[in-house]
Design brief:
Number of domains: 3
Subcellular location: Peroxisome membrane
Oligomer: single chain
Shape: globular
Keywords: Peroxisome, Peroxisome biogenesis
Distance between the termini: 36 Å
InterPro entries: Pex16 (IPR013919)
Order of helices and strands: HHEEHHHHEEHHHHHHHH
Largest sheet: 2 strands, antiparallel
Pfam families: Pex16 (PF08610)
Radius of gyration: 23 Å
Family: Belongs to the peroxin-16 family.
Strand content: under 5%
Number of strands: 4
Strand order of the largest sheet: 1-2
């Protein structure tokens, strides 16, 4: 493959810089506008929109916009990607080798592809259900899960961790928009933040994960500009391998096999026994529970390190996904369907609030597999 000419590279960098500048200025208000639009699109009861297709389309567009903005704002040095060498995996800082740049690029593309698929997977399922019925939709879901699994394995091969750490967990701990906020603050002080800096420390400033809005701390006194002027440690991959949970434990391997195979096994049971099957529900629940039982005792990163924060966030993400079992049929139909319908009727009687079809949208999307899959 021919190498990229310097002039072409300069044009690409200029284009990215222009997009980054646009997102820095207009990204947040556009994202907020799209977020509000999700709940203002009416959920039709007619044949052409019986599952809230247009509402889901607005949500998917909002999520894709947010993902693209995140990719533009993220520094390559922040990616948890390590370079393999003859002596093992090296997580180096400083000048990047061509191999490390290639690994970072493939990681970024795979992570963006995985999260983009998650943004549109409900739309793909609803489209498949319209064309071929519920069973055909489950077959499409199965193929989508296979693609997602392949992307997860690609990401896992680039990471220095003993188990898969999802991008959602990484973004929870290290919001890329934090760096944007840090640059804006230091720019207002006439300073240049160091490349790859993480931003203002969490103890002094809270930055929303999605919005990127910074809120100053309520406690403390003194000149806050001095605190802002002090750059925190950069978020780099250096030391992740040494600080993370050791590789090789059989229970970690079992936990990973169960966690990543659960969506496929669940879909196969749904195809065989139907969406209302208690066997499929219990199988998915028990597989997830058993995976956590194997994983949690084996997670042992070095305390107080970046690796510890990311691994703990991934464990917390997997625990939170367990709650989606309550939103899956038939457990949802037995326990939560009636209360949700009552709440929906109450909300429709309240002025202003009845403009936002939050509960109605959830009720019409709940029967879809990807609405509650947690994968």
């Amino acid at each position: 493959m021919a190498s990229i000419q310097p002039t072409s590279m300069g044009a690409i960098e200029a284009a990215l810089a222009a997009q980054r500048s646009f997102m820095s200025r207009w990204g947040e208000p556009l994202e907020q506008l799209l977020s509000v639009g999700v709940f203002l699109v009416p959920v039709q009861e007619e044949e052409d929109d019986h599952a809230g297709f247009y509402s889901q389309a607005v949500y998917s567009a909002t999520d894709l916009f947010n993902l693209y903005r995140t990719v533009l704002l993220r520094s390559p040095d922040e990616l948890p990607v390590c370079e393999p060498s003859a002596s093992g995996t090296v997580c180096a800082t400083g000048s990047s080798s061509p191999q490390l740049r290639h690994l970072r690029l493939t990681y970024t593309l795979a992570a963006f592809a995985l999260r983009s698929i998650r943004s549109v997977q409900v739309l793909l399922e609803m489209h498949a259900a319209r064309r071929g019925g519920p069973r055909h939709a489950l077959h499409v879901c199965l193929r989508i899960e296979v693609v997602k699994l392949a992307l997860k394995m690609l990401l896992r091969s680039r990471m220095p961790f003993a188990f898969y750490v999802d991008e959602d967990a990484i973004e929870e701990v290290e919001p890329p928009k934090l760096l944007e906020q840090k640059r804006a603050m230091m720019s207002s002080l006439g300073q240049t933040p160091p490349e790859g800096a993480a931003g203002v420390a969490g103890s002094s400033t809270f930055v929303g994960r999605r919005s990127g809005r910074a809120l100053p701390a309520l406690e403390g006194s003194g000149d806050t500009s001095l605190a802002v002027a002090q750059p925190p440690p950069p978020r780099v991959a250096d030391g992740l391998r040494a600080d993370s949970t050791p590789v090789g434990d059989a229970r970690l391997v079992a936990a990973e096999l169960l966690h990543h195979s659960r969506p496929l096994l669940h879909l196969l049971l749904l195809l065989r026994m139907g969406r209302k099957s208690w066997v499929a529900w219990w199988a998915a629940f028990l597989i997830d529970r058993l995976s956590l039982a194997f994983l949690v005792p084996q997670v042992s990163p070095r305390p107080g390190t970046r690796a510890a924060a990311l691994e703990v966030a991934e464990v917390r993400r997997r625990k939170n996904l367990m709650w989606w079992a309550l939103a899956r049929s038939p457990a949802f139909d037995l326990v939560l369907l009636r209360p949700c319908q009552i709440l929906d009727r109450v909300l429709k009687r309240i002025p202003v609030i009845n403009l936002f079809n939050i509960m109605e949208l959830f009720l019409v999307l709940q029967p879809n597999y990807f609405s509650t899959s947690g994968s």
